[in-house]
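Many introductory courses stop at the sequence. We go one step further.
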Amino acid sequence: MKSEQFIGAFVFSDTWRDLGHFRSLVAAFQNYGINALITESDSYEEAAIDAVHEAGLRFYAGVACFSDHSSHFSTLARRPELWPVLETGELRPQMEWYVGIAPTDRAHQRDVLSTIHSIATRYPIDGLFLDFVRWPLHWEIELRPDQPRPPDSSFDAGTLAAFQQETGVRLPAHLVTPRAQAGWIRIRHLAEWVKFKCSVITRFVKEAGTVLKGAKQDAELGLFVVPDVDGRTEALTGQRLRDIAPLADLVSPMLYHNILLRQPSWIGEVLAPIVQVAGRKTLPVLQVDSNRDPDLTADWGPQMSVEDWRAALSRVKGRNDLAGIVVFPGTSLIGNGRGDVLKATLR
């Protein structure tokens, strides 16, 4: 990892509510070697983007494609048919802040594409990242060691109709419950089901890239992807890396080792096969710190020391086969020595 590479900081949208404080934050990032800011929202403050550019940093927007957690599940409340249905036939329960949205609904896809177009035409962004561009899975919790296999989804009526239309597979008429239909699909046509799930995500990524580039030709398209854990990830998320990596400019595996209850050494292990596919597009996201009060927001794993952060960085230090790194969350670099560790690593 060299200082001229992409060194990004992911921040949440509330960081620019106080523009003065935000400018100070950006200045601190610049001092630590950050050269790009990444965030996620449906709308932005142009003054905040200008502050990022004035400091010499690039600004990357982000869109939560198939999750409406930021709007407190208003989409699911308005359109309950988008609520994911598990293979058990039950609605997917809320897990912490997350539920997810069935990704096959064309009206919802169009809404997301419209948001991408609006952001790209309205704001002076340098790029845009697709987040939650996957089938429902709270992977940070559900893929922890010793957890049972996460239940597959979504077996809602709209998705099952799309599956049959695309694959030619026909559900037997006597199977009338989602549980029975899901069981039949997973026993008899699992390969077709997984291929279908992957094709849904791949098509959407391709379309999102076309919309973004059509609105702003030089904007970079980034993807946040779930790393492979025990060979489970692709079938659950529909993110087939070999298909979606060629469609993006930056591929960002979220290597949140501490949330996943893994050691920093896990980062290098899981990163290797991603680089084999995505090459120099690979832009890993590293966890900076844990959340000290998971009851307020989410369980980000046990307390994470500065030495643990240093060890995480050591897994990417000196590598020239990566696009760079993104630190998450960027605000955790401030006032605790972690920003200085990053600065020293970049040197």
